[in-house]
Amino acid sequence: MTLAAHFAPTVATAFLASSVEAVEAMTVILAAGITRGWRSALAGAGIGALLLAAIVALLGPSLTAIPISVLQVTTGTLLLLFGMRWIRKAMLRYAGVIAMRDEDQIYARERQAFGAAAGRARIDLITAFAVFKVVLLEGIEVIVIVIGIGAVGGMLVPASIGALAAILAVALLGAVVHRPLSRVPENALKLAVGVMVCAFGTFWFGEGVGIHWPHGDVAILAIIAIFLAAAAAGIQLARAPGAARAAP
Amino acid sequence: MKALRSVLLALAGLFVDDASLAITIVLILVATAFVASTPWIAGAWLGVTLVAALIAALLENVARSARSAGDGG
Questions:
Q1: CA geometry: angle at A30 spanning A57 and A102, to 5°?
Q2: What pTM was estimated for this model as a whole?
Q3: A68 part of contact set with chain B, CB < 8 Å
Q4: What is the average pLDDT value for chain A, to the nearest integer?
Q5: Structural contact between residues A55 and A140, judged by C-beta atoms closer than 8 angstroms
Q6: Rounded CA gap, A215 and B43, in Å?
Q7: A193: closest CA among A224, A229, A238?
Q8: How would you write B13-64 as a 3-class SS string?
């Protein structure tokens, strides 16, 4: 596959996946900032971002020292575990087995939790830690995705561009609207990204163990189509009589 | 210590939601790596088998999760 043909799916996957993570983190940051004050929320987010930057600075150079087949097998395995988790959850949500994620509800719950936390201080440690933890965890998910889809094919730069663009876009939107971004179709994004991440993971793992995919990198597109069809079938399967339904 | 434990548990949760699905995926990958080191299945067919096995594992898990939720389990 040409560089251009590989560039677009890499940027798109990184952008979509990172926007899901950024929206989840933004919900908690907004709830913390509005309820407990911006000083604590931004302190937690800032420390989380600094730790993430340190992780990237440490991991980045060491990636080049890892043999390509080891990198392919490792990132392929992590992407598959990560992507399958997302596809499974999105399928069960579409089938009505588990409830859809509701950013407004989560925002209200977080605001209540932060409101019930210990008294207001210059820097409220409980709030700062809660925000730090969310930023760190969502950020690590972004790093896993960027490394997973970018490290092996020499696509770290486009993957990083996609991720940074998503984080900036969500941060700007969050700063402007000052409420959770509940209109983002989180489940659809999760399903689409899960499919793409699984396709990359399957492809890299296969390459790592010596599988020669037909038509080279183009096989990724075929694997995406197969996973997408399987996800659609799986949603119907989970909707079948006898399956559970989540309360609306 | 409690905070570190909660962060580590959350980190593990990034990759493992349903333990049985995660274990099945790892077993499929280990089996694929083993078969790839033998001359039993040609490269392209092993790729097809890998995709089919992963999808079968996912569909079985989703169907089982839906059923067990329906049974109240």
A1: 105
A2: 0.77
A3: no
A4: 83
A5: yes
A6: 12
A7: A224
A8: HCCCCCHHHHHHHHHHHHHHHHHHCCCCCCHHHHHHHHHHHHHHHHHHHHHH
Cβ–Cβ under 8 Å, residues B37 and A73:
no
Shortest CA distance to B16 belongs to which of A97, A146, A137, A78?
A78
A190: nearest Cα among A92, A60, A116: A92
Please tell me the predicted confidence (pLDDT) of residue A92: 93
**Segment B20-60, tens digit of pLDDT:** 999 999 999 999 999 998 888 777 889 999 999 999 999 99
Query: Is there a contact between B46 and A206 if contact means CB atoms under 8 Å apart?
Result: yes
Count Cβ neighbours within 10 Å for each residue of A27-51 and write b for 16 or more, e otherwise: bbbbbbbbbbbeebbbbbbebbbee
ipTM attached to this prediction: 0.87
- Is residue A91 very low, low, confident or very high in pLDDT (cuts 50, 70, 90)? very high
**What residue of A is the nearest CA neighbor of B32?**
A209
Tell me what the mean pLDDT of segment A205-210 comes to: 92
Q: Does A234 touch chain B if contact means CB atoms closer than 8 Å?
A: yes
